């Protein structure tokens, strides 16, 4: 395994969760709640299966997968979308592509200076529609 991310991790910083949630179309009310949460990550490995639990006092979210095997993910309690997800190692980064309605969606985890980093990304390309 390129990196051992397993363990229980407490969030210590959070940059632009608001922008990420806006891009996902999360309601202002839910965004307000989410911004106040102190998230925890529990990352476990059982054989070749990984389980990532994101927990808080408000909601929990769990995803499990095998490296390199595409799976159906429903982001229940987050933006409630169906995506086809694929997690692979890119060097020491655990990278997930989430193919669905939102373009270039995914996340990456890696360890740096004994800290677990998570980057969640998405890009809504500019869409123009014109009428004559
Ligand atoms: C998952 C928050 C905000 C909607 C509810 C409040 C949040 C928390 O993709 C993620 O993790 C990956 C990698 O570790 C594994 O699933 C981040 C949480 C980020 C997204 C969206 C606000 C609704 C509840 C469970």
Automatic annotation (TrEMBL):
Q: Which key words are in the record?
A: Retinol-binding, Vitamin A
**Any coiled-coil regions, as ranges:** none
Record GO terms (molecular function)? retinal binding; retinol binding
Gene3D superfamilies associated with the record: 2.40.128.20
Q: Give a yes or no for keyword Methyltransferase in this entry.
A: no
**Is the keyword Lipid biosynthesis assigned to this protein?**
no
Q: Which Pfam families match?
A: Lipocalin
**Record-annotated Lipocalin/cytosolic fatty-acid binding domain positions:** 7-120
Question: Which protein family is it in?
Answer: Belongs to the calycin superfamily. Fatty-acid binding protein (FABP) family.
Function recorded in the entry: Cytosolic CRABPs may regulate the access of retinoic acid to the nuclear retinoic acid receptors.
Q: PANTHER family in the record, alphabetically?
A: FATTY ACID BINDING PROTEIN
Protein name from the UniProt record: Cellular retinoic acid-binding protein 1
The protein's organism comes out as Mastacembelus armatus
Q: What is the lineage of its organism?
A: Eukaryota, Metazoa, Chordata, Craniata, Vertebrata
């Amino acid at each position: 395994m390129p990196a051992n991310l397993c363990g229980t991790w407490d969030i210590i910083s959070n940059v632009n969760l608001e922008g990420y949630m806006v891009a996902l179309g999360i309601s202002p009310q839910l965004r307000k709640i989410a911004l106040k949460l102190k998230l925890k990550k529990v990352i476990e490995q059982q054989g070749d299966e990984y389980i990532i639990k994101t927990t808080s006092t408000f909601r929990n979210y769990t995803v499990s997968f095998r490296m390199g095997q595409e799976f159906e993910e429903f982001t229940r309690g987050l933006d409630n979308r169906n995506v086809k997800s694929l997690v692979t190692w890119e060097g020491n980064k655990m990278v997930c592509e989430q193919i669905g309605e939102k373009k270039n969606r995914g996340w990456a985890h890696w360890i740096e200076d004994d800290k677990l980093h998570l980057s969640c990304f998405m890009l809504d390309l500019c869409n123009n529609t014109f009428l004559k």
